[in-house]
Structure formats: structure tokens, C-alpha cells
Amino acid sequence: MKARLSQQPENRLYVWLPQEQREELLDKLERVCRRCYLSLYEIRQEMLDSPITTWMEKGPDPSAQKGAPLPEPMLLFCGVSSSLLGKALQVMQQEQIPRIPHKAVLTEHNRQWTPRQLYGELSREDQAVRGKG
Q1: Residue 4 above 80 pLDDT?
Q2: What is the structure's pLDDT at 126?
Q3: How many whole angstroms separate alpha carbon 111 and alpha carbon 50?
Q4: Whole-prediction pTM value?
Q5: How far apart are CA 72 and CA 116, in angstroms?
């Protein structure tokens, strides 16, 4: 039986932050989350190659091997309404968070992907949009 998205935690923001940007961005994202009543969770390196719903439901696998880190930040919104998502994006601008092209909302389609797969898809989408601009 498939788990339903409604059973997933609500109002969460999962973030991947490369080490060199972690300190700068984490404080700002924490302020955004406080203002928007979102819970903030970091995606750790050992979580990058495990399906998203696996570590959301069971926590990170301590025996998972660490693959290469992702080169840029990525945000994954879980259980947020469209109005809350809009507010969070607006607050991110107010907090002067630099552009983060790798942003997604957890869906039925991407919930079994790994963060690395999600990042790859978001990169392809960003390149396609920029190519048309």
C-alpha cells in the first residue's frame, strides 16, 4: 500500500547546503522558517543517495555511504500550501537570500527519488529555462 503525501510531515523545509555556503545561508533560512512557521531540516551528505521518503519516515541510514556532495544549495518544501510556499519565497527575498535555482515541492512523482536525482532534474529544468531566456 502506498503512503499518501497527506501522511508526510507538514510545513517542513529540507535544505542541502554545501559546506562553503552553510554558515551564510543557514542563519537566513532559519529566519525564513521562523517567520513562516516552517520546520527546518538539513539534508546530510549520507542522505543524498537514499530515497527521500525513506529518510523522512525512518531517519537517515547511519550505514549509508557518503557520495560526493552536491555543488549548490537545494530546497525541498514538504506539506506546504501554495500560499505558504509563496510567503516563504517572498520572505527569502526580504532576507536577501541569493538565488537558489534548485527548489522543489515534494510530490507523488518525486517522493521516491534521491536528493541527488532531484538535484539533477532541477538542474536540467534550470538549464532549459535559462536557454530559452
Answers
A1: no
A2: 85
A3: 11
A4: 0.88
A5: 11
Q: Could you tell me the three cell numbers for 83? A: 500560499
- In whole angstroms, what is the distance from residue 90 CA to residue 83 CA? 11
DSSP string of 83-117? HHHHHHHHHHHHTTPPP---EEE--TTTTTS-HHH
Phi, psi of 24 (to 5 degrees): -65, -45
Structural contact between residues 14 and 74, judged by C-beta atoms closer than 8 angstroms: no
Residues belonging to the chain:
133
E strand or H helix at 41: strand 39-42
Backbone angles phi, psi at 108, to 5 degrees: -60, -30
Q: What is the pLDDT of residues 8-37, one digit of tens each?
A: 578 999 999 999 999 999 999 999 999 999
